[in-house]
Design brief:
Among the domains are: 3-142, no CATH class; 267-413, 2-Layer Sandwich (Heat Shock Protein 90), CATH 3.30.565.10. The chain has a five-stranded mixed sheet, covered by helices on one side. Helices cover 65% and strands 9% of the residues. It has helices spanning 3-42, 49-69, 77-96, 107-114, 117-139, 144-226, 231-257, 268-279, 303-324, 365-375; strands at 285-291, 328-335, 339-346, 379-384, 390-397. The radius of gyration is 43 Å and the shape is rod-shaped. Pfam families: HATPase_c (PF02518), HisKA_3 (PF07730). It catalyses: ATP + protein L-histidine = ADP + protein N-phospho-L-histidine.
């Protein structure tokens, strides 16, 4: 049920209230017409007849004016003055002709809807007493039915109406509270979405631009150290730094365009080999192995899975280059029947695998990798010990499409 459904329910309640008011108005005019016709038939030439006709016309006009003045939701001083005039005219008519007492019955509803509860109950009691007195006067005798019947009917009618009013008030309060709660929930969801998007962008920037800038810094520092002794080697470092800067520029432009990894233009396998070649150098050799299994002919993996695996590989290799002191690293992509597994192993110095933040190491690479894998319902495992190298393994579940392949887009779990 949405907020529009709540509003529709409130509008339906207002429509029901208008129908009830219309019914009471029709009953008032019908009872007035019947009482006037009865009096004219029984007293066609009486001395009171002109007065009865005049007061009946005044009462009808007053009631029509009151309908035009009536507010949709709340009473006003003008409505209360109008109701007092109507009741006064009804009392005069009843004094002149007791049969007009039943005209006051529809005024129960008007009083209960217009006046405060205590004043409305006093009006109901007054009109009920008027009906009893007029009926006893017409009957010419004391009758328990005439004395007890109208009060019982009045109590039932007033009780039912007041209970309906209380239920309607509770329902309006509940709808208002529900609408307010849904608006607050929608605002909270927007804030959560904004924070999630910020986290995603921070991981993208960390895994691409920040790591590229770090590599450029290291290369330029190395070129500065050997510039005088070995200009050729220094130029090689500078050219490599320029190549990384060009790649970072491509990544930055892709951020503006659609935030997709630029390396994935030719598929995940080629992207992993490109990253491995970029990270390889005179101090580190990176090898890539693809264990496709049933991969042939089934198309590419879902976009979000390929992007996550590429970013994890980039982050892991950046950590190997900057912190592991390794001479060799291996990237293995294994495609199983229901999941894809990426392993990055190195022969470096290793670290305590029980922490996501390594002392003396800047950034939040491991935490970002875990967040990426969890967003796709997968797991990230790290095996490492000081002096024994590191193996990072990311596994992400896959769901095959109707044709046996994997859908290009995967839903958020």
């Amino acid at each position: 049920m949405r907020e529009s459904d709540d509003v529709a329910g409130a509008e339906a309640g207002a429509t029901d209230s208008r129908w009830l008011a219309a019914l009471m108005h029709a009953a008032f005019f019908l009872l007035l017409a019947v009482a006037l016709a009865r009096f004219l038939l029984r007293h066609p030439g009486g001395a009171r007849t002109p007065w009865i006709i005049a007061f009946s016309a005044v009462l009808a006009v007053l009631y029509v004016v009151g309908i035009a003045w009536a507010g949709p939701r709340r009473s006003t001083v003008r409505q209360r003055v109008w109701l007092s005039l109507v009741v006064a005219v009804v009392v005069v008519l009843v004094v002149l002709a007791p049969s007009f007492a039943w005209v006051g019955i529809p005024l129960f509803y008007t009083g209960l809807r217009t006046l405060p509860t205590r004043a409305a109950l006093i009006l109901v009691a007054l009109l009920t007493g008027l009906v009893i007195a007029s009926q006893v006067r017409l009957a010419g005798r004391w009758d328990p039915d005439l004395v007890l019947g109208p009060p019982i009917v009045a109590m039932v009618a007033a009780g039912v109406f007041l209970q309906m009013q209380r239920q309607a008030a509770r329902q309006r309060a509940l709808i208002d509270d529900l609408i307010r709660t849904r608006r607050e929930l929608a605002a909270a969801e927007r804030r959560a979405g904004t924070l999630a998007e910020r986290q995603r962008l921070s991981m993208e920037i960390h895994d691409t631009l920040a790591q590229g800038l770090s590599s450029q810094q290291m290369l330029l520092q190395a070129a500065e150290r050997v510039w005088a002794s070995d200009p050729g080697k220094a130029r090689t470092h500078v050219h490599t730094a320029a190549s990384i800067a060009d790649h970072n520029l491509t990544e930055a432009r892709r951020f503006v365009q659609d935030l997709a990894p630029a390396d994935l233009a030719h598929g995940l396998e080629q992207a992993l080999r490109t990253v491995a070649a970029r990270e390889s150098g005179e101090r580190l050799t990176v090898r890539v192995h693809i264990d496709a299994g049933e991969r042939a002919g089934l198309g590419r993996l879902p976009d979000r899975v390929e992007a996550a695996l590429l970013r994890i590989a980039q982050g892991a290799l950046a950590n190997v280059r900057e912190h592991a002191g390794a001479s060799g690293a291996a990237v293995t992509l294994t495609l199983l029947d229901d999941q894809v597994v990426l392993d990055v192993a190195d022969d470096g110095c290793g670290f305590d695998a029980g922490v996501d933040v390594v002392p003396g190491v800047r950034g939040h690479g491991l935490a970002a990798m875990r967040a990426r894998v969890r967003q796709l319902g997968g797991d990230l495992a790290i095996e490492s010990a000081t002096g024994e190298g590191t193996v990072l393994s990311a596994s992400i579940p896959l769901v095959r499409g109707p044709g046996g392949g994997w859908p290009r887009s995967s839903p958020r779990p």
